[in-house]
Amino acid sequence: MYSFKNLSEARNLTLDWLIEYNYERGHESLGGKAPVEYVRSFLPFTPQNNSEGAKGKNCCLKEFV
């Protein structure tokens, strides 16, 4: 069992996990694609990767952590 030093550490590690799980990690049930990549394959327009990298990807996730 992992013990967090404080709430901030717990939030940061949770955010890192969410980003990896939804943006980077392939899922067998989605044909090896990450959830975000899978959803984008159905969108009529897919925005190009922005120059912010991971910062741009997790901007909205921070609201939930």
Automatic annotation (TrEMBL):
Biological-process GO terms, alphabetical? DNA integration
Integrase catalytic domain boundaries? 2-35
Q: Name one Pfam family in it.
A: rve_3
- In which domain of life is the source organism classified? Bacteria
- Name the record gives this protein: Integrase catalytic domain-containing protein
Q: Which organism is it from?
A: Sedimentisphaera cyanobacteriorum
